[in-house]
Amino acid sequence: QAQLIESGGGLVQAGGSLRLSCAASGRTFSSYRMGWFRQAPGKEREFVAAIRWTGGSTFYADFVKGRFTISRDNAKNMVYLQMNSLKPEDTAVYYCAAARAGYDYDTWGQGTQVTVSS
Known about the structure:
Blueprint: E1 3-7, E2 10-13, E3 18-25, E4 32-39, E5 46-52, E6 58-60, E7 68-73, E8 78-83, E9 92-100, E10 107-108, E11 112-117
Parallel strand pairs: 2-11
Antiparallel strand pairs: 1-3, 3-8, 4-5, 4-9, 5-6, 7-8, 9-10, 9-11
């Protein structure tokens, strides 16, 4: 059974950095697209960034371009989200997700809380 486990969340001051990690297991993810999403209290879940396991193409939401970087380590089945220049509005639960090529995201992690204080 496919499983995604996020880690690395926490409390950080505005302007600080955090690196989120997502450990993928239980499936061969070589043809998958991996993404990070977030959900703030009272708001809908929104796309943050995505990367293809093969080729490494990356995609970002406009509000994180230049601040966040998504990367992956195929050998370790890990996906990362480096978050720099954090803002209070980045406060949310961050989720890792996986999608087969051409399909919607269908595997989700449990989420990790990121809190940015002003």
